[in-house]
């Protein structure tokens, strides 16, 4: 669906993208993540042919994209980059009419994003979240094959975030491909299949969620009535254990029974045992730090 090779971009003397390469397939939901200023929005703008590239190629559905060649973008791609472009005196409905002739599709998206109550009001009366939903609706209403969303959860209430997540899942199930940037990794990880991590204008890693889950470290959280003694027993037995507040954390995947047996043998009372797995944010931060090291 999307293929990016050797993409480079400078703003003045500042290198913002240096040799960006990635690709993904039809039906994938791809998360584009990275620190502030990493280059995510610049990559999205390059994909849409909105910025001149200094070098490299972008192809969508096998067709080249640049500032002068973007037929495939106008026909097959829906996008919301930074803030939605909204005309204050037009209603939400009139904005949707700019994107499609299909009343059926307009009704579908208004209902799906729960915008029925205000869709006929002038957009100047919309709140930040209402404008954001309109921007998302405009990206989706033409039922494009590829949808590019830059921080789509910005300004949305929890119910709308959930609704958007369900909608992305439903459309992806029907074959729509998504590229979504977000800093809310806890939300993003619920919907994406693949992560592309960008830092300082380079792709640091591209992994499927299944691969990341495999590399997520497990830890064991234990609470006892005598943490100091329990800590000593576990350290003596060479367990990698630290104390954090009232928790003892064993920072590796270990067999539970022998560990508990040691504590029972010393008459330590255990009040909680919990297996935890690193979330997406922790795994990515760790992989990024390991890569830099
Ligand atoms: N029009 C521009 N002129 C000059 N510098 C720019 C311009 N647009 C972006 N930059 C710079 O390019 C770098 C990458 O910006 P970009 O917006 O792509 O980052 P980002 O990963 O989307 O960040 P954020 O998560 O904060 O949105 C930043 O250092 C930014 O200051």
From TrEMBL:
Single GO molecular-function term? Answer: ATP hydrolysis activity
* InterPro entries named among the record's database cross-references: AAA+_ATPase, ABC_transporter-like_ATP-bd, ABC_transporter-like_CS, P-loop_NTPase
Question: Out of the domains of life, which is the source?
Answer: Bacteria
Q: Any keyword DNA-binding?
A: no
Task: Tell me where in this chain the ABC transporter domain is found.
Answer: 2-225
Please give the SUPFAM superfamilies that the UniProt record associates with this protein. Answer: P-loop containing nucleoside triphosphate hydrolases (SSF52540)
Q: Which UniProt keywords apply?
A: ATP-binding, Nucleotide-binding, Transport
Annotated PANTHER family: ABC TRANSPORTER, ATP-BINDING PROTEIN
Tell me which family the UniProt entry assigns to this protein. Answer: Belongs to the ABC transporter superfamily.
Name the UniProt record assigns to this protein: ABC transporter-like protein
Protein source organism = Levilactobacillus hammesii DSM 16381
